[in-house]
Amino acid sequence: MSSPVGTAAGVELVATGNGQSPREPARPLSVPAAQASARRSSGRIRHEDKITVYVSAEELLALEQARLTLRARHGKAVDRGRIVREAIAAALADLETNADDSELVRRLSVS
Predict the structure, then answer these.
(1) Are 6 and 31 in contact (CB under 8 A)?
(2) Is the dihedral of CA 53, 71, 104, 22 positive or negative?
(3) Which of 9, 46, 49, 70 could form a disulfide with 76 if both were Cys (CB 3.0 to 4.6 A apart)?
(4) 11 φ/ψ angles, rounded to the nearest 5 degrees
(5) Rounded CA gap, 70 and 15, in Å?
(6) How far is 101 from 108, CA to CA, in rounded Å?
(7) d(CA 20, CA 72)
(8) CB-based contacts of 78: which residues, under 8 Å, 6+ apart?
(9) Exposed, middle or buried: residue 95 (CB in 10 Å: 0-12, 13-18, 19+)?
(10) Is residue 46 part of a domain?
(11) Cβ distance 9 to 32 under 8 Å?
(12) What is residue 57's predicted lDDT score, i.e. its pLDDT?
């Protein structure tokens, strides 16, 4: 599968189907460039599409600790999925804005 590619019309992303059947093939989504540069997480809505991400025990513990810190120190009662969606939005916005100098490119270049 190819990585998302920016175009003059926008950014091409791949979805995992329409949420009705896990057997549906992935389809490209077109996102206008202006929308991609103002990228935000989807927030607190019902999500129809799903992915599975495997994490280490340490990463899961750190995610849970972040959730508890957000609740205790900042009064933000959010679930782990919301934190992950916000992190994805931040990483994609940074990639869109900073391209080769983005944190995502730097981190993936090390591994």
Answers:
(1) no
(2) positive
(3) 70
(4) -120, 135
(5) 30
(6) 12
(7) 37
(8) 67, 70, 71
(9) buried
(10) no
(11) yes
(12) 98
Phi, psi of 31 (to 5 degrees): -115, 125
pLDDT digit of tens for each residue in the chain (111 aa)? 444 444 333 333 344 444 444 455 444 444 455 445 566 666 667 888 999 999 999 999 999 999 999 999 999 999 999 999 999 999 999 999 999 999 999 999 996
Domain count, the chain: 2
Do residues 30 and 75 lie in contact, with contact meaning Cβ atoms separated by under 8 Å?
A: no
Q: Decide if 45 is inside a domain.
A: no
Beta strands in 44-89 (DSSP E): none
Is 83 in the same domain as 106? Answer: yes
Its pTM stands at 0.59
Q: What is the DSSP string of 29-92?
A: EEEEHHHHHT-----SS-----------HHHHHHHHHHHHHHHHHH-----HHHHHHHHHHHHH
Residues in the chain, overall count: 111
